[in-house]
Amino acid sequence: QVHLVESGGGLVQAGGSQRLSCVASGDIFVINDMGWYRQAPGKQRELVATISIGGKADYADSVKGRFTISRDNAKNTVYLQMNSLKFEDTAVYFCNVWLFEPRGLGHEYDVWGQGTQVTVSS
Protein backbone atom coordinates (compact mmCIF):
# COMPACT_ATOMS: atom_id res chain seq x y z
CA GLN A 1 0.00 0.00 0.00
CA VAL A 2 1.03 3.61 -0.65
CA HIS A 3 0.24 6.35 1.83
CA LEU A 4 0.39 10.14 1.40
CA VAL A 5 0.91 12.61 4.23
CA GLU A 6 0.41 16.35 3.69
CA SER A 7 1.75 19.06 5.95
CA GLY A 8 2.23 22.82 6.05
CA GLY A 9 -1.32 24.09 6.22
CA GLY A 10 -2.50 26.74 8.63
CA LEU A 11 -3.67 30.31 9.04
CA VAL A 12 -2.02 33.11 7.06
CA GLN A 13 -2.94 36.71 6.28
CA ALA A 14 -3.69 37.89 2.76
CA GLY A 15 -0.47 38.64 0.92
CA GLY A 16 1.48 36.09 2.90
CA SER A 17 3.09 32.80 1.93
CA GLN A 18 2.69 29.13 2.81
CA ARG A 19 4.48 25.97 1.73
CA LEU A 20 2.76 22.60 1.57
CA SER A 21 4.54 19.24 1.48
CA CYS A 22 3.31 15.78 0.57
CA VAL A 23 5.37 12.65 1.18
CA ALA A 24 4.54 9.29 -0.40
CA SER A 25 5.64 6.12 1.33
CA GLY A 26 5.08 2.39 1.02
CA ASP A 27 5.27 -0.06 -1.88
CA ILE A 28 6.40 2.30 -4.66
CA PHE A 29 7.86 1.28 -8.02
CA VAL A 30 7.25 4.35 -10.18
CA ILE A 31 5.52 7.65 -9.43
CA ASN A 32 4.24 9.43 -12.52
CA ASP A 33 2.29 12.69 -12.23
CA MET A 34 1.90 14.40 -8.87
CA GLY A 35 -0.46 17.23 -8.12
CA TRP A 36 -2.41 19.41 -5.74
CA TYR A 37 -6.16 19.93 -5.63
CA ARG A 38 -8.29 22.08 -3.36
CA GLN A 39 -11.87 22.31 -2.20
CA ALA A 40 -13.26 25.56 -0.84
CA PRO A 41 -16.45 25.80 1.25
CA GLY A 42 -19.50 25.31 -0.93
CA LYS A 43 -17.45 24.54 -4.04
CA GLN A 44 -16.31 21.45 -5.92
CA ARG A 45 -12.79 20.11 -5.75
CA GLU A 46 -10.57 21.73 -8.37
CA LEU A 47 -7.13 21.21 -9.84
CA VAL A 48 -4.45 23.59 -8.57
CA ALA A 49 -1.23 22.31 -10.14
CA THR A 50 0.40 19.17 -11.54
CA ILE A 51 3.98 18.18 -12.23
CA SER A 52 5.36 15.32 -14.32
CA ILE A 53 8.24 13.09 -13.33
CA GLY A 54 10.47 15.19 -15.60
CA GLY A 55 9.43 18.43 -13.92
CA LYS A 56 6.89 19.83 -16.38
CA ALA A 57 4.40 21.89 -14.39
CA ASP A 58 0.88 23.07 -15.19
CA TYR A 59 -1.25 25.47 -13.16
CA ALA A 60 -4.80 26.62 -12.84
CA ASP A 61 -5.21 30.15 -14.20
CA SER A 62 -6.22 31.41 -10.77
CA VAL A 63 -2.81 30.58 -9.25
CA LYS A 64 -0.40 31.22 -12.13
CA GLY A 65 2.38 33.56 -11.12
CA ARG A 66 1.70 33.03 -7.42
CA PHE A 67 2.05 29.27 -6.77
CA THR A 68 4.95 26.98 -7.65
CA ILE A 69 4.81 23.20 -7.67
CA SER A 70 8.00 21.15 -7.39
CA ARG A 71 9.06 17.61 -6.58
CA ASP A 72 11.96 15.66 -5.19
CA ASN A 73 11.92 12.23 -6.80
CA ALA A 74 14.55 10.84 -4.45
CA LYS A 75 12.30 11.70 -1.50
CA ASN A 76 8.96 10.85 -3.16
CA THR A 77 7.80 14.32 -2.20
CA VAL A 78 5.82 17.06 -3.92
CA TYR A 79 5.66 20.66 -2.72
CA LEU A 80 3.40 23.63 -3.29
CA GLN A 81 4.86 27.06 -2.60
CA MET A 82 2.02 29.57 -2.27
CA ASN A 83 2.83 33.29 -2.43
CA SER A 84 0.67 36.41 -2.48
CA LEU A 85 -2.17 34.46 -0.92
CA LYS A 86 -5.73 35.71 -1.33
CA PHE A 87 -8.88 35.08 0.64
CA GLU A 88 -10.12 33.04 -2.34
CA ASP A 89 -7.29 30.55 -1.79
CA THR A 90 -8.89 29.37 1.45
CA ALA A 91 -9.59 25.66 1.04
CA VAL A 92 -8.65 22.15 2.01
CA TYR A 93 -5.66 21.19 -0.13
CA PHE A 94 -5.26 17.58 -1.24
CA CYS A 95 -2.19 15.83 -2.60
CA ASN A 96 -2.71 13.42 -5.52
CA VAL A 97 -0.14 10.93 -6.82
CA TRP A 98 -0.30 8.57 -9.81
CA LEU A 99 1.67 5.35 -9.57
CA PHE A 100 2.49 2.48 -11.89
CA GLU A 101 2.23 -1.06 -10.53
CA PRO A 102 4.21 -3.40 -12.85
CA ARG A 103 3.33 -6.68 -11.16
CA GLY A 104 0.57 -8.89 -12.47
CA LEU A 105 -1.10 -7.36 -15.54
CA GLY A 106 0.41 -3.94 -14.84
CA HIS A 107 -1.73 -0.89 -14.17
CA GLU A 108 -1.80 2.74 -13.06
CA TYR A 109 -3.70 4.03 -10.08
CA ASP A 110 -3.88 7.16 -7.98
CA VAL A 111 -3.71 7.85 -4.27
CA TRP A 112 -5.08 10.81 -2.32
CA GLY A 113 -3.84 12.43 0.85
CA GLN A 114 -6.09 13.28 3.77
CA GLY A 115 -6.03 17.01 3.05
CA THR A 116 -4.64 20.01 4.91
CA GLN A 117 -6.54 23.21 5.70
CA VAL A 118 -5.23 26.53 4.40
CA THR A 119 -7.07 29.57 5.73
CA VAL A 120 -6.31 33.05 4.40
CA SER A 121 -7.62 35.94 6.46
CA SER A 122 -8.49 39.28 4.89
What is this structure's SSE topology?
Blueprint: E1 2-7, E2 10-13, E3 18-26, E4 30-39, E5 46-51, E6 57-59, E7 67-72, E8 77-82, E9 91-101, E10 107-112, E11 116-121
Parallel strand pairs: 2-11
Antiparallel strand pairs: 1-3, 3-8, 4-5, 4-9, 5-6, 7-8, 9-10, 9-11
End-to-end span in angstroms? Answer: 40 Å
Helix content: under 10%
What sort of overall outline do the alpha carbons produce when their principal axes are compared? elongated
Topology order in helix (H) and strand (E) letters: EEEEEEEEEEE
Q: Which structural class do the helices and strands define?
A: mainly beta
Number of helices: 0
How would a crystallographer describe the biggest sheet? 7 strands, mixed
Q: Please provide the count of β strands.
A: 11
Unreliably modeled segments? none
Average of per-residue pLDDT values:
97
Tell me the radius of gyration.
15 Å
How much of the sequence lies in strands comes to: over 45%
Structural features, described:
- It is built from no helices and eleven strands.
- The chain is mainly β.
- The strands form two sheets. Strands 2, 4, 5, 6, 9, 10 and 11 form a seven-stranded mixed beta sheet that branches. Strands 1-3-8-7 form a four-stranded antiparallel beta sheet, with no helix packed on it.
